[in-house]
Automatic annotation (TrEMBL):
Keywords: FAD, Flavoprotein
Domain of life from the UniProt record: Bacteria
InterPro entries for the chain: FAD/NAD-bd_sf (IPR036188), FAD/NAD-binding_dom (IPR023753), FAD/NAD-linked_Rdtase_dimer_sf (IPR016156), FCSD_central (IPR049386), FlavoCytC_S_DH_flav-bd (IPR015323), FlavoCytC_S_DH_flav-bd_sf (IPR037092), SQRD (IPR052541), TAT_signal (IPR006311)
Stored PANTHER family: FAD-DEPENDENT PYRIDINE NUCLEOTIDE-DISULPHIDE OXIDOREDUCTASE, PTHR43755
Native species: Thiobacillus denitrificans (strain ATCC 25259 / T1)
Xref: Gene3D superfamilies: FAD/NAD(P)-binding domain, Flavocytochrome c sulphide dehydrogenase, flavin-binding domain
SUPFAM superfamilies from the UniProt entry: FAD/NAD(P)-binding domain (SSF51905), FAD/NAD-linked reductases, dimerisation (C-terminal) domain (SSF55424)
A Pfam family per the record: TAT_signal
Protein name: Putative sulfide dehydrogenase flavocytochrome c oxidoreductase
Amino acid sequence: ARPRVVVVGAGFGGATCAKYLRRWGPALDVTLIEPNERFVSCPISNWVLGGLRSMDDITHGYGGLARHGITLIRDSVVAIDPDTRTLRTAQGLQIGYERLVLAPGVELLTDSVRGFADAEAAGRVVHAWKAGAQTALLRRQLEAMPDGGTFIVSIPAAPYRCPPGPYERACLVAHYFKQRKPRSKIIVLDANPDIVSKKPLFTDAWNTLYPGMIDYRPNSPALVVDAAKMTVSTDFEDVRGDVLNIVPRQRAAAVCDLVGARNDGNKTWCTVDFATFESTAAPGVHIIGDSMASPLPRSGHMATNQAKVCAGAIVDLLADRAPDPAPVIANTCYSATSDSTAGYVAHVYRLVPGKGYVAAPEGGATTTGDARNFRYAASWAKNIWAEMLS
Ligand code: FAD
């Protein structure tokens, strides 16, 4: 029988890994398991909130993966037995594997902000940190907000998915307010002591494009949200808003816990061998993307690069060859600051034994947004969606 590799989660990491497993290991039987019918992209979802793009623009079908000979199963994995190398899905399928790849993204810790889980269940307050129905709901809330209203976005302590994402969100909501509700305000409650990523880009945008509109408050973790009073409370104050957006703390997705892979110091993220992305807790199980423990930024671009290193290593391991001990991965991350300006950071990392992935010194970043990078940002998204889904 052909060796079977099962990939869990068809997001940036999983879809890319499945594709490259088949491309580099044409003899492999590759099964990809994902509950969602269509892929909704987190990158560019802030553009939807700002009115630059629609939900349709960030929603893509999985049909393109079929031509690679991948078996796509629409289901969720609910149990894994690493001893017998079999897993079970919510619909009761039992599937065996030689190697398993978990690329399940993050679990949002809604209980980390008191009152948030109830407010979310009632459809009053969303995180919109997984693109989909909550993105559309937050956009509708912003559209319904009167001119002169206040939008509050709270940012958890790092590490979390997409370090620059909340600050880009503040920019693009400000862009929308500037066009349509210019008397409105944005309060950014940041649990971190300072802007976590691309600080020069965002402070320049806030000062020059949206002067006086964005009130940035560092060291202000959201502790309680009250959807009746429409307040977010920190240690020092209760802040009232008209639209509340809580981005809670995060950890590796729940499926990782089925094999005891959330094994870093805080039992939050999954530690791996960086050359193969094999879990240090569960032999034969590889973990890529946001669930993995590392100081690398959690981005879609990173997840696709890790996916390729992992796919190559699995093809080697199944053929009894030693995987590349020093793989190279890259990250490029664009953030839009308006409907016509964006900036970026870009780094190349090489695995140095004993040190992890080390950034090459010539990485770059922009300090101000410009039109050329806005066009590049739009192209980046189209290219990465094509890379993972077709
Ligand atoms: P995901 O893409 O989340 O995929 C995980 C998949 O696993 C999901 O489809 C899920 O349904 C599935 N899954 C989970 N559990 C199971 C299970 N038990 N069984 C089966 N399937 C399961 N990154 C960039 O590179 N550039 C950007 O500009 C950018 N902007 C962003 C903006 C925002 C607002 C946000 C929130 C994120 C942004 N990101 C960006 C980050 C990026 O979205 C993530 O880093 C990326 O999605 C991680 O990929 P992943 O494969 O680990 O997880």
